Predict the structure.
Amino acid sequence: MSRIPSGFIDELMARTDIVEVVNSRVPLKRAGSEFKACCPFHGEKTPSFTVSPTKQFFHCFGCGAHGTALGFLMDYEHMSFPEAVEELATLAGLEVPREAAPGADSGPDLHGTLEAAATYYREQLAHSPPARDYLSRRGVSAESITGFGIGYAPDEWDALTRRLGRDEEARRRLAAAGLVVERDSGGCYDRFRGRVMFPIRDARGRVIAFGGRIIADGEPKYLNSPETPLFHKGQELYGLYEARQALREIPRLMVVEGYMDAVGLHQAGLPWSVATLGTATTRQHLDRLFRLTDEVVFCFDGDRAGRQAAWRALETALPALREGRQVRFLFLPEGEDPDSLVGKEGADAFTGRLADSLPLSEYLLAELSRQADTGNLDGRARLAELAKPLVARVPDGVFRALLVRRIAAAVDMPEGEYGRFVASAVPPQRAAIRTARPATRAVAGRSSLVRRSIALVVHFPAVAAAVRVPEGLGGLDRPGISLLVELLEDLSGGPHITTGQLLERWRDREGGAHLHKLATAEMLTDEQGAGGELQDCLDRLAAEAIPLRQEAILAQGGRLSDDQKAELRRLHSELARIKGAKG
């Protein structure tokens, strides 16, 4: 694996104008020194979305959305961080450099090999009447074949190897890409033979793996690429790239079980459909889905296997639930799959079935009620016990509180009592975090001076780079002081940067999320007054820290060393300067 050097991100942000990036997607109007528009992330009639060219930062006062040019692309275009970097680099005329992660072996570049294989499979489909007949019987249109890049792997042991594996290095790449299987005795053979081939694409549309459906007798019916450096089936979803290309806004995403289901639904005009790759839904799948939409619908057959798969999906979804996110379950008539059903009844009727889909809370309660007879006391007690560990996995918040109320009513138990019953199942680490919160609030008042200092640094980093940093700040025992000191050291002696650059420097560092939040706060000062206010805040903190540092040196006892004497003189001089400045 490789990563993007942090220095390049700094240069990229310096050469990017957030106004240009946003305005090309959301028309902006100048409002004083800033630009405004109706927020693209929530519906509104009065503009509350602002873009600051000085800070290189956007913020919506209505919904709270905020961030840098990179953050805007990630939110608006549903891009990953590397994709957003690539997009801005293209606009700036820069080539994104890569450096190897510590201890990583970069290995062969597999994208070219996989793209060549995809081209080969597409060519072979044109020369295979049985494969074309199979797709025709399944109702797959020529447009879908082209759009999804569907191909065919000839029913030969080494057709692909002969085409793309002409030397040892090429065969090594084929093996690393999961396209051939190496024999213990030497040599290799094609992994996919006699199969209709479905390319699996990443978020940028690059082929990273394949799924193959056999068209004659044989097992397995479906065969996926093995895990490779590019492909991890527990993270990828078939059809997700196509859904993002088809939809600017994604109202929901429906998870189905097969490649043909996803293709059929897309072809019917329902491009918000994706398929798992022969595996149960994982937490990584859900994280990807919820980055793109707030509603996920799981679609399963109504038979026993379908309900078992649905229950596994429910258990996986519980920790990912929070306010605004919805998970629903749609069960189809037995013997039907999404592909066949949408072909019979059409897109409108199929979409209409969503009205009958079960919200997660209702499905959970219905399934547990099948295991317990709520008509008697023992059955209700069993239902309460069965639900307890499941509800405990839901994050604290409104959804969990409502779920507690729903189950409490079902078992005829006081809501507060059932809530305490569920709380007893909370893992110890979560309970510890919950217990710690009041203490954090108790010291919040003491940290206000530090918080103000950090806020000034975030809003006016160029000003902060020019202030005089007093001695001894790092020795002060106050919440946030280490973050403040690190910020000031980060700015010291470097070129002037914007708020956007500063936030990107801290994107993946501890405290970065806190800096983003402070960047949205309203500042009742301007750049001219910020320098003096920040210097005053730092001096007041130092006036508190320096005596503590002096006491610590003197408390060591014995004869002072020359270094300790010099340190005391330096601290004394600094304290005198601060008092003199205030006097």
About this structure: Residues 427-447 have pLDDT under 50 and may be disordered. The domain at 448-582 is CATH 1.10.860.10 (DNAb Helicase; Chain A). DSSP finds 26 helices and 18 strands in the chain.
